[in-house]
Amino acid sequence: MIYAFKIGFLDVRWVDIVDILLVSVLIYQVYKLLKGSVAVRVLIGFLVLYLIYLIVRAAEMELLAGILGQFMGVGVLAAIIIFSQEIRKFLLILGKSTFRQDGILKSIMIWKRKEEKEQFNITPVIEAAKSLSATNTGALIVFSKNSELKFYADTGDLMDAVVSKRLLISIFNKHSPLHDGAIILFKNRIKAARCILPVSERELPAQYGMRHRAAMGMSEATDTLTMIISEETGQISIARNGVIDSNLLIPEIRKRINSYLSEAKQEKETEEANLEVAS
Ligand SMILES: Nc1ncnc2c1ncn2[C@@H]1O[C@H](COP(=O)(O)OP(=O)(O)OP(=O)(O)O)[C@@H](O)[C@H]1O
Fold it and tell me: Which keywords belong to this entry (predicted)?
């Protein structure tokens, strides 16, 4: 056995150091995932209880150790039930990175390359946003750069229509049967309307209602950018990577959407370059 060093009577192996580092990374990732949600308090509660259990066991307090031991026995099952939402999110994040790899494979195909040349013209969306904001018409618009988000598109009405200012205004008109929920934009097309987005469970400022909460949830669960137009104030906000930036001006909104979409372009160009180097 190869030992790294010794602390008193304790022999520390290299594998123990790697083990500790990996557990630290895992705990940090779990903390990052739970940060800001009520689940983090439950997790702290669990950890405190576990610590007490270890102390009680070391002190050989048989009765209390027995009771806490029983509780710890079902702890894993209880944690799966309590943290089911967070576990889902974690698996979604894992799936997302796998999906990117899937994108690399797909880009090998020539027909896919042709498709990728399409440019997203965001001007109709910006023009519609100005008009919706001026009339205090609520709207939720999801931009997706990597996939058509079938899972979420299927929760609404599938459309596959060309993006236009008039169509966007019509969809979000308060009397339109399609105005509720979100629309999903992918490759210059409105893929679906009336979509239900995942709702964030974080503590959000009081002025944010369900529309903002849904945009936040979407940005936590997927690699998308969501534009929110408030029915109450007409303000336009953007949710991305679990952060909402409110009351943005039109030039800033345009810049952020373009930068989000160009990230996709850059990613694809890098993939193509990698493929060319490899071939
Ligand atoms: N899970 C969801 N997915 C998509 N859209 C949703 C979801 N939940 C609520 N909405 C949309 O949000 C609307 C309700 O918005 P609400 O007034 O509660 O939000 P808000 O954040 O206060 O926004 P506003 O500033 O526009 O009032 C619903 O009518 C519906 O269109």
Answer: ATP-binding, Cell membrane, Membrane, Nucleotide-binding, Nucleotidyltransferase, Transferase, Transmembrane, Transmembrane helix
Give the pLDDT of residue 221. Answer: 85
- CA–centroid distance, 26 to ligand 1, in Å, is 34
- In the chain, how many domains are there? 2
Q: How close is the Cα of 210 to the center of ligand 1, in Å?
A: 4
User: Both 130 and 107 in a single domain?
Assistant: no
Q: What is the mean pLDDT of residues 38-66?
A: 84
Query: Quick one: tokens of 260?
Result: 């989000």
Q: Let me know: does 180 contact 13? Beta carbons within 8 Å.
A: no
* Bridge partner residues of 5 (DSSP): 12
105 & 156 share domain: no
Which ligand 1 atom is nearest residue 180's CA?
A: 31
Q: What average pLDDT score do residues 69-92 get?
A: 76
The answer, yes or no, to whether any atom of ligand 1 lies below 6 A from the CB of 208, is: yes
Interval between CA 221 and ligand 1 midpoint (Å): 18
- Residue 165's Cβ-count burial label (10 Å; 0-12, 13-18, 19+) is middle
pLDDT at 112 over 80: no
198-238 pLDDT, tens digit each: 999 888 888 899 999 999 999 988 889 999 999 999 999 99
* Ligand 1 pocket test, candidate residues 179, 211, 227, most atoms within 8 A of CB: 211
Kindly report the pTM of this predicted structure: 0.64
Q: Within this chain, do residues 132 and 104 fall inside the same structural domain, yes or no?
A: no
Write down the ipTM of this complex: 0.94
